[in-house]
Amino acid sequence: MKGKEILNAIRKEVDSHVGEKVMLKANGGRKKVYVKEGILEKAYPNIFVVRIEGKSKDVRTVSYSYSDILTETVQLIFSKNKENIAFN
FRET pair for 27, CA 20 to 30 Å: which of 35, 64, 70, 80? Predict the structure, then answer.
């Protein structure tokens, strides 16, 4: 049951930052790390969505699960206070 409690804590933390600017660091596999800036658009029960604007005004949305934060596949750093969501 401890795992569900941690995921609920992550979900609540992400939900409290909806609408804020965020820096997203995502592990792309094979030693690739993607760093993008966007806006945390929505937080659903199992996933959260980040809207990323590209260089040529193209808009892209990416979604990740809360377990991606837990396994450190994804890092969210909020621009407002440089807060990083991390649970060990």
Answer: 80
